[in-house]
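Um, can you check?
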Amino acid sequence: MSAEAKQRAREQARLRRDAAHAALAKTAPALIASHFLRSVPLAAGACVAGYAPIGSEPDPTFLLGQLAGRGHPCVLPRVALRNRPLIFNVWQPGDELVPGDHGTREPRPGVPERRPDVVLVPLLAFDSEGRRLGYGGGYYDRTFEQLRRTGGQVLAVGVAFSAQEAQDLPEEDFDARLDWIVTEKGARAFGPRAGG
């Protein structure tokens, strides 16, 4: 797929996500949390990385609050250097966030870092094989490559509206697939790492 075609796919996916967000923004967070907690395997004390939503991304912070209440440490990503893997800083519901690169909100510098066992991933689209269409920066792909190379298993869990499902998304060699997708309609596992 050409760069122009991929950009068109991103624009169409963003429109679908915007429409889903307009209809589901208030109800989806609790549904996503319920499906995640019922389906995705978590070891006791597993550290979970979330994100502070921007634009029409589904909001995972309700889920993070539920996880923190069950004894799971939570972290949020921070862009320390452009075009490098993300780092993850310890975060609890209510902690201050500061503006980051690309319109994100992230923990302030100096907050302790921690390696996550599970990473909640924002996306524009996903397909039935666990491929995801991101924003084109490659941050999550680089991050998963580094986490899996240096520390073993980490689960990649896409967080999306069900309307974001697409058919046969393009894939390049460096693209990291999802292990799970969780939407307001349910949770679905992909591939060999999905068992925890």
In short: The mean pLDDT is 91. DSSP finds four helices and eleven strands in the chain.
